[in-house]
Structures are given as C-alpha cells and as structure tokens.
Design goal:
The structure is a single chain. With about 180 residues, the chain is of the alpha+beta class. Helix content is about 50%, strand content about 15%. It is built from six helices and four strands, in the order H-E-E-H-H-E-E-H-H-H. Strands 1-2-3-4 form a four-stranded mixed β-sheet. It is globular. About 10% of the residues are buried.
Length: about 180
C-alpha cells in the first residue's frame, strides 16, 4: 500500500523534474506496486464552437498523438530516472479537451483462482460481447466495483495508512538500547 505521504513525495519529484513546458498542468500521479502513471493537461486544439463531434474527436486524438511524438525524448529521460529511483515502470497520459488518453501502461498479470461460478460470470460477459477474454472480463468487473465503491475504498485506504503510521511508531522501529556494562 502506497501512503499519501509517499504519493505526495512522488508528485513533488515529478513536478520538480518535468520540463516546465511539458504540460499546462500536472493533473494526476497514480502509483501502485508496478507502475507510476503521470497524466498532464495539454492545450486543446482550436475549433469553431459548432464543430461536429467527429471533427472534435479527431482533433483531440491528433493533438494527443502530436504531443506524444514531440515529447517522447523528454518523457523517456524522466521515465528512466524515475524507474531507477522508484523501481516502478512509468506510464504517460494526457488530458485534452475533456478527453483522457493513455500512451503506455502496464498490463500486470494477476494470479487468481476462480471457481466455476466466478468463471461463468466471466464467460457470460464474453458471450455478451462486453469483453474479449477472461482477462478483459475480470478488468471490467474490477472497474465496475471501483465505480460503485469509491467511498468505501477511500475509507479503507485511509485506515490502512493509519495502520502503517501506528506500526511505524512501534517498539521494533527504534534501535535496541545499548547493553549495560554489568551485562543486564
């Protein structure tokens, strides 16, 4: 579990390390055991107010692609340094005109043992065209749970941080006292 303080330090490192002109704003840093995802806001393309939805979508997509190609060297340099320092892969994304685009991200395998009833749920999602594979179906389920339990998950994360703070104050965190000369 990554604490709020660790996330804040990570965000501070990226804010200080990223080139000033890379993003209009660093909007989000997300971290887990395998990956750090860095998302920043970039300027939206200029379009007329009555531009059709297809034109707007194409413009946003091409702006994100242009940013990705133009900033690749700078982002890769920062990622190499961060991956060495934090021992996690770095992924990138942008927000542009209300649309989020992820360029690269880790698809980490998850070891799990599902019994037949759980597998049947995944198979139903596949048969219904919701997912292409069991892996997609499982990811869909996780996103659904996440969407409906954000408050509960936030409370759980907060309590885990509290547990970590209490553990860090325990007796095992302080050095052993020096032995007395009389052997006691």
């Amino acid at each position: 579990m990554i604490t709020t303080e660790q996330t804040e330090k990570l965000r501070g490192w990226f804010a200080g390390r990223l080139p000033d002109d890379l993003f209009e704003e660093l909007t989000e840093i997300t971290v887990d055991r395998e990956e750090i995802t860095v998302i920043g806001r970039i300027r939206a393309p200029r379009l007329t107010e009555d531009a059709p939805a297809a034109e707007r979508e194409a413009a946003l997509e091409s702006r994100a692609q242009e940013f990705r190609e133009r900033t690749r060297d700078d982002r890769m340099a920062v990622a190499r340094e961060a991956e060495h320092r934090f021992r996690r892969k770095v992924s990138w994304g942008v927000e542009c005109g209300g649309r989020r685009t992820l360029f690269t991200h880790v698809a980490a395998p998850v070891m799990t043992r599902l019994r037949q009833p759980e597998r049947q749920v995944l198979e139903t999602l596949i048969a219904g065209g919701v997912a292409r594979s069991r892996s997609d179906a499982l990811a869909w389920c996780v996103r659904l749970v996440q969407r409906h339990t954000d408050d509960w998950l936030t409370e759980l994360r907060d309590s885990l941080e509290h547990v970590q703070r209490v553990r860090s104050q325990g007796p095992d965190t302080e050095p052993d006292p020096e032995p007395r000369p009389d052997g006691e």
